[in-house]
Automatic annotation (TrEMBL), chain A:
InterPro entries: THDP-binding (IPR029061), Transketo_C/PFOR_II (IPR009014), Transketolase-like_Pyr-bd (IPR005475), Transketolase_C (IPR033248). This is Alpha-ketoacid dehydrogenase subunit beta. It comes from Paracoccus siganidrum. NCBIfam families: PRK09212.1 (NF006667). Residues 4-190 form the Transketolase-like pyrimidine-binding domain. It holds the Pfam family Transket_pyr. One of its GO terms (molecular function) is oxidoreductase activity.
From TrEMBL, chain B:
Residues 13-310 form the Dehydrogenase E1 component domain. SUPFAM superfamilies: Thiamin diphosphate-binding fold (THDP-binding) (SSF52518). It comes from Paracoccus siganidrum. It catalyses: N(6)-[(R)-lipoyl]-L-lysyl-[protein] + pyruvate + H(+) = N(6)-[(R)-S(8)-acetyldihydrolipoyl]-L-lysyl-[protein] + CO2. This is Thiamine pyrophosphate-dependent dehydrogenase E1 component subunit alpha. The keyword Oxidoreductase applies.
Amino acid sequence: MTVKTMREALNDALFQEMRRDPGVIVIGEDVSGGAGGSSGSRDAAGGIFGVTKGLMGEFGDKRVIDTPISESAIIGLANGAALAGMRPVAELMFADFVGVAMDQIYNQMAKFRYMFGGKAKAPIVVRMSMGAGMNAAAQHSQTIYSMLSAVPGLKVVVPSNPADAKGMLAAAIRDDDPVIFLEHKALYSSKGEVPDGEYVAPLHGASLVQSGKDATVVALGRMVSFAGKAAAKLAADGITIDLIDLRSTSPIDEEMILESLSLTGRLVVVDESNPICSIASEIAAIAAEKGFASLRAPVARVTAPHTPVPFARELERMYVPGPDRIEAAIRKAVKGE
Amino acid sequence: MQQSRTDILKAYRQMRMIREFEERLHIENRSGEIAGFTHLYAGQEAIAVGICEHLTDRDYISSTHRGHGHCIAKGCDPRLMMHEIYGRADGLCKGRGGSMHIADIDKGMLGANGIVGGGPPIAVGAALACQARGDGSVAVSFGGGGSSNQGTVFEAMNMAVVLKLPKIFVFELNGYSEHTGEGYGIGSDLAGRTRGFGLPVFEADGFDYFSVYQAMADALEHVRAGKGPCALIAEATRYFGHFEGDPQNYRAKDEVKTLRETRDALLRFRRKVTEAKLIEAAELDAIDAEIVAFIEDCVTSARKAPAPGAEIMLSDVYADY
Ligand SMILES: Cc1ncc(C[n+]2csc(CCOP(=O)(O)OP(=O)(O)O)c2C)c(N)n1
Ligand SMILES: [Mg+2]
């Protein structure tokens, strides 16, 4: 184990998988950078968040492909290359840019296997940075996993820590279905222990971060650490929780959630996305359908409001569900006040 | 096309306003007070101003992530823009949008845009409205060289041609798209490609206000004659990084220094109008001083302006809340 940032852990996974399988290619804007620039550097960026740094040097421009600003064609490139036997990892710098490439994602890659009678596979990873936290405003801060999780054929995962970032990215690349891989931009510099050497983690399945008796708290992405902060405060008052890191929003690990709920009787879901048709809603529905008998309090959803992501620091802070709001929601679920 | 002394002084003032606004933001960005992504327009002033000096509030423009220059040139209030960039409640967009989303519909400014290629289709729609009004108004989309590779832009160009709209596609070639040279992504000759869509292309030297002004006059004559859309392509440079904080590893060390010394749009303007004895250097100096003081005051008032509260976050999602 070595302490690394999430950025480094993701970079490790890309090196690991590109060395292992010559069919793995990386495609995107500025994934190496510098082409046609006056400095002569061909690794001037390594992705705008530095995740693909150094790949160009080892794998060259046949496997590390800088593209024009053409998201629809970037995903199309991944789609066609995958159908023809490669394992592309496409990067859309910001998850918000899926809008430009949506047809290739939700009408094309998601449906190949099914529409084509099970004879096609699309082993594609689409990496995107997501989430608020950088005051990047309405078109550079969205989470989008709810929207994409609603599409049959897509898998959607959201790592919350560096070890998972490495292991899940490796697993996503090896997976034979299209995986939307969402990296929270506020977590790129967060640090954690990361296994050395070859490492692959389960792509799906939630993980129990801490256990307690009073409530089940399901969180994902950046919200996991926020929920952890809330839990630390509640522990001082004798309230303890099961904190579940969802990890994957498609599929969702119902079993772990329901089992925990059966022990705690209370469910709080923390989701950075807008509330309507959200992952929080989905989990609330699962609890209502399959865990109703366990519920001793109404399910609480802690989400962003039904607004675009605002720019100003003060507004973004209010928008993102923070540790205080999470703490209050858990307290209310437990104490009923 | 002849410009009066008043016009020339106004154009200079606008260019200086943009330059000072951006140079000052570059300094203020280091203080950590300004949140989010800020993309500065310094170095490209002649393009925004050379084009917008032809337009009135009834004409429309769409802009990009690098929008401050277009906003100022189209008549947005620089003080309210500064407040917006500082995320203040009394900013032009109530602190909700920030640098990348400044807009002022009353001024015909349809928004900076966080999505590369997001603006041109919108401007095509505005051109449709202009055509319907039949008052000679036009719509202009600004876009970088990199944006010219978006399918959305291809579609917008073709749509404008099909509908014969009064629409001008401006492409500002500043050398880079983020960390990559623009030439790498464009892949062929941009003017030729644009002509292939059926758009006549007017080319200008984007470091030279008068060159851009003339090209825009020609472009307007074309669209106002009802001949459909056209494009205006101009080369310039950006003096700063892609965004504030960009280490610019893709760029040779002295590139900007050399361009600033040899091609700077403001110096060139000054030289041209003083050598032609149209304007006294002292008049330009006075404008410079006035604008430095004005921007200083904008920054001071932005710092003191109130932060937005929850009511601003939770309103204007729809017409009724
Ligand atoms: C759809 C979309 N893709 C990518 C980006 C990220 N991005 C922002 S600006 C930019 C480069 C734009 O280059 P160019 O059009 O030349 O404009 P310039 O920055 O040079 O003004 C990129 C890739 C984006 N904002 N939107
Ligand atoms: Mg450019």
